[in-house]
Amino acid sequence: MTVTLTKGQRVSLEKVAPGLTEVFIGLGWDVKAMDTGYDFDLDASAFILGNNEKIISDNHFIFYNNLTSPDPAKSVQHTGDNLTGAGDGDDEVIKINLQKVPAEVQKIAITVTIHEARERGQNFGQVQNAFVRIVNAQTNQEVIRYDLVEDYSVETALIMAELYRKDGEWRLNAVGSGYQGGLKALLDRYS
C-alpha cells in the first residue's frame, strides 16, 4: 500500500516498509500543451550530503554526467538522462542501496531542474503532474508517493524530496521547494 505525502510531510521508511534495503526513486512529469519554441528537458539529480548539509565532494553530485556515487558499492546510481519526458510513468530514476550508503552520508537531496530554462524561456509553471515516488527495488512495489500540486511559475529548479538518517533509520521528507536560477542555484546551496 502506497503512503501519499503532501508538501512538508516526513515519514520513516522503516515504518511504511519494514526491512526496506534497496529503493528506486522514480521522478515523472508532463509538459503542458504550449509552444516555447523548444523541447523541455528536465533532469533529475541527487546531492549526497554530509553533516554540514553540503555535498561531500564534487563526485557526490549524481546527475546525467556522473551516474554513480564514488563509494566502492556505488550505492547511489542514476539510470540516465531522458531528453523528452514523453510517455507515462517514471521519466528518470535514481537507485539507492540504503544498506550500502556510507555512514558519512546524512542526507540525499532529490532534485529536478529544467535544462537551459532561462535561454528557452521555460519554468515549472509549464510542467504538470510532477511526482516523486519511492519504490521497493526488490518487489517493484511503490511505498511512498509525493505529487507536486503547487504552481511554480517562475522556478526552474525543485528540491523534490530528501532521504535522511535519523535515529539510525532512513526517513523521507517531501520538500517541494522551488528555486530560480536552475541547477546553479542548487549547486550554490549544496556546495
Structure description:
The protein has helices at residues 13-16, 117-120, 182-190, and strands spanning 3-5, 10-12, 22-31, 42-49, 61-62, 76-78, 92-97, 107-114, 127-136, 141-147, 157-166, 169-179. The chain is mostly beta strands and 191 residues long. It has one domain: sav2460 like domains (Lipoxygenase-1), CATH 2.60.60. The strands form two sheets. The chain has a six-stranded mixed β-sheet, with no helix packed on it. The protein has a six-stranded antiparallel β-sheet with strand order 2-12-11-8-4-5. The chain starts with a strand and ends with a helix. The relative contact order is 0.26.
Task: Based on the model shown, name its key terms.
single chain, 191 residues, mainly beta, Lipoxygenase-1, six-stranded mixed beta sheet, six-stranded antiparallel beta sheet, TerD, Stress/Tellurium_Resist, Chemical-damaging agent resistance protein C
